[in-house]
Amino acid sequence: MRRPITIVSARFEDLVSIGLQQLINEDTNLQLVHCDCELEDLEDVVEREQPSVVLLNFGSLPNAAWIYQLHQSRPETRIVVLANRPTPNEANQILSFGATACISKETQGRDIINAIHLASRGMRVLPRQTKSPAEPLERFDYLAEADILTGREAEVLQLLQEGMSNAEIAHTLSIGIETVRTHARNIYRKLGISTRRDLARFSRQQQPAQL
């Protein structure tokens, strides 16, 4: 008999939480081992339960970099982030910090469960950019590996968002300044931006209050 996919869920809005619990409990291949976990307790709960998947509420996170910290502390656990209608750029950054899937809270229930199953197998999932208002929100695309920030690029991105100069980043990471510039160009390309001003605007959009 196949072992169930174990899940720890962070705290969500009441209706979302009730819906997630019902969907998970109806799937015999899924097992909810902890639900409505407060953010400050989440790392300890994940360490104790060692779940296959963690469900995160992006609106409750202090910033997107929090995902990176959780991923680093428990890389074997897949992170599925639910957000309020994330844009393609927002979804790309969420995945670049270590999430396996980023999906909209408006996604239909059966497709959220499908995304959990896919993420548990390591498949990266994000919402498909709709071409018209009539196109369903719940459809998914798989993010090409080339679009994912590397670990070093994620570190450079975090320092760029903190306002460090290229020279300061080079010193902090003990790498050459030209290497920093190369990483920055790759980051801008993958995030679909071109300048630090664009990055500052993009970073503001990642704050939970903006979603």
Describe the overall structure:
- This protein is of the alpha/beta class.
- It has two domains: about 5-145, 3-Layer(aba) Sandwich (Rossmann fold); about 150-210, Arc Repressor Mutant, subunit A.
- The chain contains nine helices and seven strands, in the order βαβαβαβαβαββαααα.
- It has a five-stranded parallel sheet, with helices on both faces. The chain has a two-stranded antiparallel ribbon with strand order 6-7.
- The termini are far apart.
Summary keywords:
9 helices, Arc Repressor Mutant, subunit A, Rossmann fold, alpha/beta, two-stranded antiparallel sheet, disordered C terminus, 211 residues, 2 domains
List the helices and strands and how they pair.
Blueprint: E1 5-10, H1 14-26, E2 30-37, H2 39-49, E3 53-57, H3 65-73, E4 78-83, H4 88-96, E5 101-104, H5 109-120, E6 125-127, E7 140-142, H6 151-161, H7 166-173, H8 177-191, H9 196-205
Parallel strand pairs: 1-2, 1-3, 3-4, 4-5
Antiparallel strand pairs: 6-7
Helix pairs in contact: 6-8, 7-8
